[in-house]
Automatic annotation (TrEMBL):
Protein name, UniProt field: Uncharacterized protein
Superkingdom classification of source: Bacteria
Any GO molecular function: catalytic activity
Key words of the record: Membrane, Transmembrane, Transmembrane helix
Any Gene Ontology biological process: nucleoside metabolic process
Organism listed in the record: Escherichia coli
Length: 51
């Protein structure tokens, strides 16, 4: 099963997303808790890969 270690540093998260989509620029900042950050991360990656 896939496991990843997530950081609470938003700039680190942006760096991860930019590796998949170099022209990505964050438009909204938000805080997620209770594991929702992991869910959002997978949602963004799936959206980036489908573009």
């Amino acid at each position: 099963m896939y496991q990843a270690q997530f950081s609470h540093n938003p700039l680190y998260c942006v760096d991860i997303i930019k590796t998949y989509k170099p022209d990505f620029t964050p438009r909204v900042a938000f805080i997620l808790g209770s594991g929702l950050g992991a869910l959002a991360f997978h949602f963004f990656i799936s959206r980036i890969r489908s573009d």
